[in-house]
Design goal:
Elements lengths: L1 H18 L4 H13 L6 H12 L4 H12 L6 H13 L3 H13 L9 H9 L5 H15 L5 H13 L3 H10 L5 H14 L2 H10 L5 H13 L3 H13 L6 H14 L2 H13 L6 H13 L3 H9 L6 H13 L3 H13 L6 H14 L2 H15 L5 H13 L3 H11 L8 H14 L2 H14 L4 H13 L3 H13 L8 E6 L2 E6 L8 H22 L1
Antiparallel strand pairs: 1-2
Amino acid sequence: MIRKGVINYQSNSLLSFLKKCRTLNQLKQIHAHLLKSHLPGNPFAIGRLLSLAATSNNPSFFSHACLIFQNLSHRNIFIYNSMIRGYVLSQAPVRAILCYLNMLNYGFSANNYTFPPLIMACNILGSTSKLIGCLVHAHVVTSGFDEDPFVVSALIELYSLNYDMGTARTLFDRIPKRDVVLWTAMVDGYGKMGDIENARTLFEEMPERNAISWSAIMAAYSRVGDFKEVLCLFRRMQEAGIKPNESVLVSILTACANLGALAQGLWIHSYAKLCSFDSNTILATALVDMYSKCGCVDSALSTFHGIPSKDAGAWNAMISGVAMNGDARKSLELFNDMVSNGTQPTETTFVAVLTACTHARLVKEGLKLFEQMSSNYGVEPQLEHYGCLVDLMARAGMLTEAEKFIEEKMGGLGRGDANVWGALLGACRTYGNIEVGNRVWRKLTDMGVADCGSHVLSYNLYKESGRDMEAKRVRRLISEAGMKKKPGCSIIEVDGAVEVFLAGDLSHSQAPEICRTLDSLFNIGSLENYNGA
């Protein structure tokens, strides 16, 4: 009894040291103290050390945890759960599952803390995710945890990630007592599937909501591009007195960026500073994106430079930001800084820099970067990168070269998409190259392509070059196929409120007044032109 008290006292003292542990040497010193104190035979004492090392997100700590685990003669369920979590956090799902099987072979039974990280391991397995997940689900049922809210929540996420919301809904409906975690998991699952109707229905039925629930429904609307509704939900959340978390703020900033709602974005930035959220890399990256899309490049750069540990996402946002604001040279400069700082460029990085080169007509630089993608940086070009290069050459008037690139490097127009076809046809129209444009159009019609944008570009190309017969033929195809061009859209922000206007849309409550005002402005403009003449 006395020995147990001493062990508990020493373990509690070590726990306070473990919380302050920052380096591997400090961790090893505490481990050595445990060995000298004859505590290693007690799995409760060593368990706390192993748990901290395994789940710290520190690779050296985790390696030490693995060494400790391999040499332990006495283990318990807490130690196994810690190692399973550690393997998942280290993106080693197979080892997490093998650790679970080893635990069963060792004679231990799983508890409710075992299954959530184990199911998470299934989520990151890839192609076998659902198969292994179903086997784990069977273990959940036989172990008697099929009504545990945290376990069921993890299963709902598993099935939603595998686009099986039917099974997820069955699990949800069977639970007699559903807490906010379960409700939120379902809302998030439907949101990730793009099923806004079911996500919103469940959200409105929730008996209680927390910040994570609001974040899930906002993210759902953000995914489908309904950014105005994201801001409306945020106002409702504020009225409900719920304090936003970092995920909510990221969704709001994404909405502000896409709507050009600078005033709202500035308020979010101030709030983030007040709550010390601005040190969060993901949130800071969203701020960079918001300022860039609102045209405030200096504020974007200031925020970017204030990020202490910049990941590829932060670099990509800033490179894209200066590119969309017309400073291609700055984009290339930032790309070089990114590489110099040891950050690996991603597919998104190259889309950003190639787009920058396209708009500045830096053909030589763009072609060089494209060639270096796989050879220097190990990034294989995707369709979007090929599209950027076609656009780069086409805008520079290199239409024959662009057409040759599509045939030789991409395997023909059939391997392209609307962006590739549109880039080439648009340039043919700009430069009046009816020869290349005609060849491209005939190949697209032979392929049975029904892209409205390509048809409209071809119609304009023929019409402007005086080839009325071909223009009428394209026009007839557009009508027969019932194609409709996506209407133009403009967005304004007035007193913190965002208004969206679509071309030809008269559904706005003040549409008649707006039309009368526009007519008056046109009349004034016509009068000034007449007087000037």
